[in-house]
Amino acid sequence: MIRWRRARLAAAREETPTARTLIFDVEDWPGHLAGQHVDVRLTAPDGYTAQRSYSLATPEGVELTVEGLPDGEVSPYLVEELAVGDEIELRGPVGGWFVWRPGTAPVLLVAGGSGIVPLMAMIRTRRKAGSAAPFQLVYSVRTPDARYYGDELDRPEQGLSVTHLYTRVEPRRRIGKEDLPGPGPDVFVCGPTGFVEAVADLLLDLGHDPARIRTERFGG
Length: 220
What we know:
Elements: E1 4-16, E2 19-26, E3 37-43, E4 49-55, E5 62-67, H1 75-80, E6 87-94, E7 107-112, H2 116-129, E8 135-141, H3 150-154, E9 160-166, E10 186-192, H4 193-205, E11 213-218
Parallel strand pairs: 7-8, 7-10, 8-9, 10-11
Antiparallel strand pairs: 1-2, 1-6, 2-5, 3-4, 3-6
């Protein structure tokens, strides 16, 4: 049974002007797979609780990257107020389908906005495992300064190709068939619901096997 654990914030860094990466110390953490997530629970002094799910960003330790949403109940506190040494509750790891285990098959990753987080965990897991599996990342984001992990993704890495598409700066680009390869790789798509549905349709039009397309979505 997955239980709630106390998690102490050990370190934090600004990822973008509106997002923050949080690194937690969690007692008896059982470990996790790339693509899994945790549930985070906050409790107010009056006993009111709010809970949200966040993807794990690395294969080692508990690291989350959280986008602050103006109308959110949890993310504004995590991004703007949570201080090193503070504790929260979290439960996990959760999920067993949207995961990547090191292997040799080529992989296509398609991210929309903060959907990069679990895909970054896969990239980092590949690196840590010394896997030779070819990885291709297509990352759609509003502007260059809204990219997560920009410096890391800009560093050349053998076997990893990265394409950025910007939707709010010229030349404005939304993902199209020309940005995606044909059938062959295992595919992981993560982002807002509309983005994921559009990408899945493009992949099917290109002839990808639906059984090899795994999706994770958020939002309405």
